[in-house]
Amino acid sequence: MDHTTPSKAYEASMRRAIALAGNGPSNGVNPQVGCVVLNSAGTIIAEGWHRGAGTAHAEVDALSQLTPEQAQGSTFVVTLEPCNHTGRTGPCAQALIEAGVGTVVYAATDPGHGSSGGAQRLRDAGIEVIGGVLED
């Protein structure tokens, strides 16, 4: 990361992800979630958000904007722990594993009984995971 510590860069990126989350619908059962993707230099190379039930989750929305080479080793900063279940869409944790991302930074742990556990799945796959960034 440029001239700042990783935690400061992650906080700035998380603020952007939080702003992006506000683009999603404010009603319904799904939370508003935003995501930014950073390259190795700490530059934002993609952004995404969840647009509502049945649509791509924020991570997959951002991932769809990247080439496989860009995704490889990148850092995903997302407002909610990547999901770990198949519902109307597949598990975001698995999509990130398959893309070969290097690090996942998230704010809040997924409170859903069936959807949580993505952080552990990512760790088990060898991906660095940092939780609790700007969780409040």
Secondary structure: elements and pairs:
Blueprint: H1 6-21, E1 34-38, E2 44-49, H2 58-63, H3 68-71, E3 75-80, H4 92-99, E4 103-108, H5 118-124, E5 128-130
Helix pairs in contact: 4-5
Q: How would you characterize this protein structure?
A:
α4 packs parallel to α5 (118-124). With 136 residues, this protein is of the alpha/beta class. Helices cover 30% and strands 19% of the residues. It has a five-stranded mixed sheet, with helices on both faces.
Strand percentage: 15-25%
Radius of gyration: 13 Å
Structural class: alpha/beta
Strand tally, please? 5
Low-pLDDT stretches: none
H/E series: HEEHHEHEHE
Q: How helical, in percent, are the residues? A: 25-40%
Major sheet summary line: 5 strands, mixed
The strand order across the widest sheet is 2-1-3-4-5
Principal-axis shape: globular
Q: Kindly state the mean pLDDT as a whole number?
A: 93
Q: How many angstroms separate the termini?
A: 24 Å
Number of helical segments? 5
Keyword list:
five-stranded mixed β-sheet, 5 helices, alpha/beta, single chain, 136 residues
Quick structural overview:
The chain has 136 residues and is α/β, with parallel strands linked by helices. Helices cover 30% and strands 19% of the residues.
